[in-house]
Fold Phosphatidylglycerol--prolipoprotein diacylglyceryl transferase.
Amino acid sequence: MSQPYVVHLNPVAFHLGPVQVHWYGLMYLLGFLCAIVLGEYRRRRGRLPVTRDALSDLFFYGMMGVIIGGRIWYMLFYYAGGLHWIWTTPLALFKVWDGGMSFHGGLLGVLVAALWWSHKQKLHFFDTMDFVAPLVPIGLGLGRLGNFINGELWGKPGTVPWAMIFPEARGEDLQYVAAHPAWSSLMQRYGGLPRHPSELYELALEGVAMFAVLWLVSMKPRPRYLISGLFALMYGVFRFAVEFVRVPDPQLGYLYGTHWVTMGQMQSLPLIAVGLVLLWMSRRAPVLPLAKVGG
């Protein structure tokens, strides 16, 4: 194979005086901005009978749900120190630079926020979620791009033509070569093991593919539950599949044996099941009529 690309990008986009602005944070911000713009576009076409101010409230609550839910979920299921932080260092919850956030927790946070907002607006919860679902994949894809820029969440060693070198994975590379001597020649040749760029796989699937499908399907009014079901099913399947070539979180590893089932796969299975149930429910569900556009 030819010389692999070395993922050695500067995670800092620019400085504001002593403050470092990271690409990862900008990806989150850009994802929220895209959701706001596309959401207003859909609202003005009558896809949800609410005012602009009410929709702004939904986006604010949803943003808080992503941050709070994503962080709490990470601390409960992925934090390297286990659950001891709850009674020993509870402030670790606010150190978002230490470990980050979890998608599944962020999704739950959005669901709780949308449920409360829908009740307040006297709307069916799944009419709200069908409206929101096509707006989410852009943020998911940008988040994975941020992971790639950070050189984190890399994949397993591979010899595919697009395999890349992740300098931050050198410690894992050495351990892998010790257990699999056949890879030592590649290690010596490139100074690191070529790995699957699993972040880019997720960018393509969870970001580009999901957005294209959900946006195209939602261009016309559809039965309740359909868009939400497609979102849950597609994300669950895509995430489950990519986990086969993505290295699991080192503090967790594989849940069964040395190569079987990751936490990401376990948490994606309920999404697949929910997606299938929602698609079945959509077969006899009503279609939300287009609303008259207000202020």
Observations:
- The first strand starts at residue 5 and ends at 6.
- DSSP finds eleven helices and five strands in the chain.
